[in-house]
Amino acid sequence: MKILIFISIFLLLISCGKKQEIRIPALNPVTGEPWAGLHYSITTEKTGAFSENYKVIHEGFLDANGKAVTQVKMKNASYRIDIENPGNTCYENEVQYSFTKNDSNFIFVFELAPCAYLQRKVKNVNCFNASDQIAISIDNQVHSLLSFVWVLNGY
Q: What is the pLDDT of residue 8?
């Protein structure tokens, strides 16, 4: 009987894990706007004798403010947070974080910025005739970007 009590107490102690609040904000670092509706997942990573074992323990979507707050029961394992890439992003600080229960910071900030494009509209407002020409060149501080000249003929 004593052995059964000791075994049940031992199992109770090793099965207990501390609940930790995990905060997941995602924002555009250029504009400060949130990325709402992105899917995230929290996965445990345990090393077995011959393989790695992964199990999704929580998943969800970011709210309208681009944030999620969840409680995770932390055990002796590694954890990973993944967030979906919304596409058309040219900058990501991280799309995956790893952590353990011994870490001190449980706020995982994801920064995603969409790709930017430059489009110039050039209009000849002082058109004289069909032989008009306009030459356009673009330069930067180190003289390395688009150092050739565009020549547009006509109106």
A: 64
In degrees, rounded to 5, the angle at the alpha carbon of residue 152 between the alpha carbons of residues 148 and 155 is 165
Checking if the pLDDT of 44 tops 80, the result is yes
CB 69, CB 22: distance < 8 Å: yes
Taking Cα atoms as reference points, which of 30, 39, 35 lies closest to residue 91? 30
pLDDT band at 15 (very low <50, low <70, confident <90, very high): low
Per-residue model confidence (pLDDT) at position 122: 73
Assess whether pLDDT exceeds 60 at residue 118.
yes
Q: Cα dist. 138→120, 143, 148 in Å?
A: 11, 9, 8
Rounded to whole angstroms, the Cα distance separating 127 from 35 reads 46
Could you give the CA distance from residue 111 to residue 118 in angstroms, rounded to a whole number?
22
CB burial of residue 62 (10 Å; 0-12, 13-18, 19+): buried
20-59 burial string, b = 16+ CB within 10 Å, else e? eebebbbbbeeeeebbeebebebbbeeeeeeeeeeeeebe
- 96, 100, 115, 99: which is closest to 26 by C-alpha? 96
